[in-house]
Specification:
The protein is about 25% helix and about 25% strand. It has about 425 residues and is an alpha+beta fold.
C-alpha cells in the first residue's frame, strides 16, 4: 500500500512548518533515509529523510506553504499502488474552518479544549508572546492563517485597531506557566513611511521565513529587555601563545582545530558560574536562575543566522568545547541540527570579529538576559608596566569584547565584574595547557 509522509513534530512547542524544497519530483525513486524535502520552523531548518524506499507518488504540499504538524505532505510507494491514508495523519481538509466567537473567550486560553482554544494554543511562539505582552486573548482575534490560526499580521492589525487603549487585564494564576515577559502598553501608532518612492528603481524580494523570524525576534527582544552595554579590552597574547604551542598536538588528540573560541567559552563558563544572575531569565516579577550553563554560539549561514547550543559547557575541557563547536557549526550549515540542539541556551556568544569587526553591540537572545560580542583580535602597540614599575611599549594581540545585558535584573557593576573575570581568565589562565 502507499505510505503517507507526515510533517514531523520537530520540537514540543512547534505547531507548524514550511516546506522549503522538495528533493524529488513526482515519479522519481528515493531510498530510505535519503533527503526527501526541507522544512523551516520557528526554531530550526532541517532536511527530512524518506521514511521508506519507494517512488514519490504525490506531493500534497507545495514549496513555501506552511502546514500543521501531522499533515500529510506526500505519498510514497510504487506507481501501481493505491493510496491508503494513515489513521494518525492529519489531512489539510481534516480541520474544519473555525468560527470566531469572542463571547466564549475566557482568560486562560490554554485551558480551553474548544476548536478556537486549540487553534490559539497552536499559534506561533511569537504570536503567543505578543498576545501575552499586550494582554490579548487570542480567541478574540480573527485569524487569517491556515484553518483560522492567528498570524503576526493579525495581531499587529488587532493592536493597531486598539490604538493607545490600555491592555486587557488578565487575572494572574500563580500555577500557570509564564512567558517571562512583563505586560506592556500597546505600541503607539506610527505613520507608515514608504520604503521607496514612486518611480524609484528598486528590486523587491520577499523575506525568507528565517529572515522574518530573525526580524520578529530582534524587535521583540528590544521591546522586552532594557539593553545596556559595556566594552572591555582584553590582551589575548597569552592565549595566542598557548594556541601556537599546542595546536598541532591538540588537533591530533581531539580531531578539532584549536581556535580562540574554546578559550573564550571556557572563560565565559567560569564567569557565569561566579555570577549566576547573568545565567538567568526574567519570569514575570521573578528571576529564574538556570542551574545548567548552556552556551549558544551564533553561526552565520548563507540564508541567515542560527544559534546552536553547547549543553553543560562548564563541564567540558578545551577539547570537548572545540569538538562540540565544530560539530554543531558544520551540521548547522548542512541543515542537520535537531530542535534540542538550538534550544535551552542560557547565554550566547557571537563573533563578528571573524569578519574584521572591532566590536559590536548585539541584541539579547530571549529569554536570556545577556549576550557577549567578540571583536577581531588585532596586533596593537600597548603600554606594558614591568614589576619594577617601569613602562614600555610592546606589540600585543588585543581584542575588544562587549556585553549586552538586561538592566532589569543585571546592574552595571555586576556586568563589569563578570567581564573582569572573563578578562582575567583569558589573560592569566593556562586552561590546562603547558
Amino acid at each position: 500500500m502507499a505510505f503517507d509522509v507526515v510533517m514531523p513534530q520537530m520540537g514540543e512547542s512547534i505547531a507548524e512548518a514550511t516546506i522549503l524544497k522538495w528533493h524529488r519530483k513526482v515519479g522519481e525513486a528515493i531510498g530510505k533515509d535519503e533527503t526527501l524535502y526541507e522544512i523551516s520552523t520557528d526554531k530550526v531548518d532541517a532536511e527530512i529523510p524518506a521514511p521508506i524506499a519507494g517512488t514519490l507518488l504525490e506531493i500534497l504540499v507545495p514549496e513555501n506553504q506552511t502546514v500543521p504538524v501531522g499533515s500529510i505532505v506526500a505519498r510514497l510507494g510504487n506507481d501501481s499502488e493505491k493510496t491508503e491514508a494513515s489513521p494518525a495523519a492529519v489531512t489539510l481538509e481534516a480541520l474544519p474552518t473555525p468560527v470566531s466567537n469572542p463571547s466564549r473567550a475566557t482568560p486562560a486560553a490554554q485551558d480551553d479544549n474548544s476548536l478556537e482554544g486549540r487553534l490559539a494554543s497552536k499559534s506561533s511562539p511569537l504570536v503567543r508572546t505578543m498576545a501575552a505582552a499586550h494582554g490579548v486573548d487570542l480567541r478574540s482575534v480573527k485569524g487569517s492563517g491556515l484553518h483560522g490560526r492567528v498570524t503576526k499580521e493579525d495581531m499587529e492589525a488587532h493592536l493597531a485597531g486598539k490604538g493607545r487603549s490600555a491592555p486587557t487585564v488578565i487575572a494572574h494564576d500563580p500555577s500557570a506557566p509564564t512567558l517571562g515577559l512583563v505586560p506592556a502598553l500597546a505600541a503607539p501608532m506610527v505613520a507608515h513611511i514608504p520604503a521607496f518612492a514612486a518611480g524609484e528603481r528598486v528590486k523587491v524580494e520577499p523575506m525568507t521565513r528565517m529572515r522574518k523570524i530573525i526580524s520578529d525576534n530582534m524587535l521583540a527582544s528590544k521591546r522586552t529587555s532594557a539593553h545596556v552595554y559595556t566594552v572591555f579590552e582584553i590582551d589575548m597574547t597569552p592565549v595566542a601563545r598557548l594556541r601556537e604551542r599546542n595546536k598541532k598536538a591538540f588537533l591530533e588528540a581531539y580531531g578539532a582545530k584549536l581556535s580562540f573560541m574554546p578559550f573564550i567559552m571556557a572563560a565565559v563558563a567560569k564567569a557565569l558560574r561566579a555570577f549566576p544572575v547573568i545565567n538567568a531569565s526574567v519570569d514575570g516579577d521573578a528571576i529564574a536562575y538556570k542551574q545548567d550553563i548552556n552556551l549558544g554560539v551564533a553561526v552565520s549561514l548563507d540564508w541567515g543566522l542560527i544559534v546552536p547550543v553547547i549543553k553543560n559547557a562548564d563541564q567540558l575541557n578545551l577539547g570537548g568545547l572545540a569538538r562540540s563547536l565544530s560539530d554543531l557549526a558544520d551540521r548547522a550549515r548542512a541543515k542537520q541540527l535537531k530542535p534540542d540542539e538550538i534550544s535551552g541556551g542560557t547565554f550566547t556568544i557571537t563573533n563578528p570579529g571573524v569578519y574584521g569587526d572591532v566590536f559590536g553591540l548585539p541584541i539579547i537572545n530571549q529569554p536570556q538576559v545577556a549576550i557577549q560580542g567578540i571583536g577581531a583580535i588585532v596586533k596593537r602597540p600597548v603600554v606594558i608596566t614591568a614589576p619594577d614599575g617601569t613602562d614600555s611599549i610592546a606589540v600585543r594581540q588585543m581584542m575588544f569584547s562587549s556585553l549586552s545585558f538586561d538592566h532589569r535584573i543585571i546592574d552595571g557593576a555586576t556586568a563589569d565584574q563578570f567581564m573582569s573575570l572573563v578578562k582575567k581568565e583569558l589573560e592569566t589562565s593556562t586552561f590546562g595547557l603547558e
